[in-house]
Amino acid sequence: MLEFKDAKKLIAKLDALAMELFDDFEEVKSAFDEMKGKYAEDIIEPICDGYERRVQAAVLFSGALGLEANRDHFRDPFKPTVLDVDSSEFLREGALTMMPHYAKAERDISAHFHDLPNDAMQAVMEYYIYLETCGTKLAHFKAFILGDELLLYTEPGYAPDRVLSYNYRRMLSEWFRVEESAL
């Protein structure tokens, strides 16, 4: 289960997961760690803190959307599903930027954006965007799957669509290039 209440714990969990699942993450992480070691804590920490809170907000929002997507599919099985639309649509990325916690993190990042040289800022952005991209997709999926069990207790007449859940898992395993069992 992803830890979402504590941004630092969430980042640590996503970082470990990305290292385990994705071959190309090691290079991104290495560049980030190298850059982080070059700058004083008072310069780098406000930027990292902003990005960590941004990832946290995005993951939480995506998880809520995953549960909602499962419920909405039950209520209207003819509505397009996560398999039918682009991930930016089912993750409602446009709406995410208006969420208060996310917007505050963005403002804090912007306030410190020029505290680092471009190459260092690039390493920071690449690292956290990698984690945000993976984290939002995983959170949406995990919450969608959780809905298969939870909605039995909260939605009268609910019956999980196991075929949709299976196909969603398969789609993500192809996207992440990992075995289905890893998800």
Explain how this protein is built:
This protein has helices spanning 7-21, 25-38, 41-75, 87-90, 93-96, 100-112, 118-154, 162-176. It is mainly α. It has one domain (7-176).
Key traits:
elongated, mainly alpha, about 180 residues, 8 helices
Low-confidence stretches: none
Main structural class: mainly alpha
- Mind summarizing the main beta sheet? none
Number of domains: 1
The strand count comes to 0
Global outline: elongated
* Strand/helix succession: HHHHHHHH
Amount of beta strand: under 5%
Output the number of helix runs. Answer: 8
Quaternary structure classification: single chain
Distance between the termini: 11 Å
**What is the overall pLDDT average?**
90
Radius of gyration: 18 Å
Short description:
It contains 8 helices and no strands.
Provide the fold topology.
Blueprint (H helix, E strand, L loop, with lengths): L6 H15 L3 H14 L2 H35 L11 H4 L2 H4 L3 H13 L5 H37 L7 H15 L7
Helix pairs in contact: 1-3, 2-7, 3-6, 3-7, 7-8
